[in-house]
From TrEMBL:
The lineage of its organism: Eukaryota, Viridiplantae, Streptophyta, Embryophyta, Tracheophyta. GO terms for molecular function: carbon-sulfur lyase activity; transaminase activity. Residues 1-23 are annotated as: Disordered. This is Tryptophan aminotransferase-related protein 2. One of its GO terms (biological process) is sphingolipid metabolic process. Belongs to the alliinase family. GO terms for cellular component: endoplasmic reticulum membrane. SUPFAM superfamilies: PLP-dependent transferases.
Amino acid sequence: GGAAKHEIVISDTSGRPPVSKDSVVDLEFGDPTMYESFWKGMGDRGTITIPSWQTISYFSDATNLCWFLEPEFAQEIRRLHNLVGNAVTEDRRIIVGTGSSQLLQAAVYALSPSDAPEPISVVSAVPYYSSYEPLMNHLRSGLFRWAGDACTFKGDSYIELVCSPRNPDGFLSQAVLKSDGGKTIHDLAYYWPQYTPITGPADHDIMIFTFSKSIGHAGSRIGWALVKDTAVARKMVKFLEISTIGVSKVSQIRAATILKVVSDSYENPIPGNQDKVFAFGRHLLANRWKKLREIVEASGIFSLPEFPSETCKFTGETAEILPGFAWLKCEKEGIEDCASFLRSHKIIARGGRFFGAEPKFVRVSMLDRDETFDLFIERLSSIR
Ligand code: PMP
């Protein structure tokens, strides 16, 4: 038939050259390509076809406060949180965003007083996620501005960003500031069972999650916020209306389909099937962390954070924290800048300064493809 004529071929290399023995190992960003092999193994489960006449309207549900939220997507979000037990969804508004990056901006906008003489300070405890500063400052808003480390902040009017488990160092964290005038936003991008034991459902005023790190689909640019207060939710929706008039329906429908595959695999398991994404992620990260810790211990040049183990309420098993990033510290005498030291060995990682920390630290992504990770381990073990 004529259909094939119009089909386009989707590249699967992310535009990066294939990894070879002497490639530069680029682990600066947290591109979650390790999940590619899992989704390849799922074959056609999660494949969607959308006729050209569908998804034309701007609207998804004109009766909902978040009128651009696809109802099936919202349903699968609630279902997944109930399954995993990582967040309370009762009496919460769901707001979808173009990645959690957009929702962080929407949340800060919604919490900023509109009548203050000065922009409100946005803070986060060091080491903080390196994108917080540009997200807050790039457009030089008159409403809010980045004010750095929450631990050294003085005053009682602020917005604190709490990232738990924390990007870059992996620790579970809580708000450090407590004041009646202060507000908090919880960035729970990594509060999923492959990265950390689930100790209970998170129950905060604003909780932000992302499709990118939960199950690996960063390219769909889907994030969601669970918001307690309706007035705050309304202001966040306003931000999204002004910014992008909503969020791609195609992405939401694809996300709903893929999330349904995930929940189905746990709720209606097929014995012996290797189709559970959190188990896949945990197993792969456990292997990678074991290899990395062995190399680091043998070298004596670097050190890594140590994490306690706890019972994961999702799996029922004792689990340690297996972060999506390695927060590597250079212990070698005379080397102050770990990022440039690694660069001289053809490894690219993000230096500590970007996270408000010392340049002795670097953040290395643990979420890349096997060939990249293996080359990283090989390079690291050759450093003396
Ligand atoms: N928050 C944290 C802590 C992250 O690590 C990331 C991705 N690196 C994001 C937010 C943004 O993710 P996205 O916009 O892809 O949802």
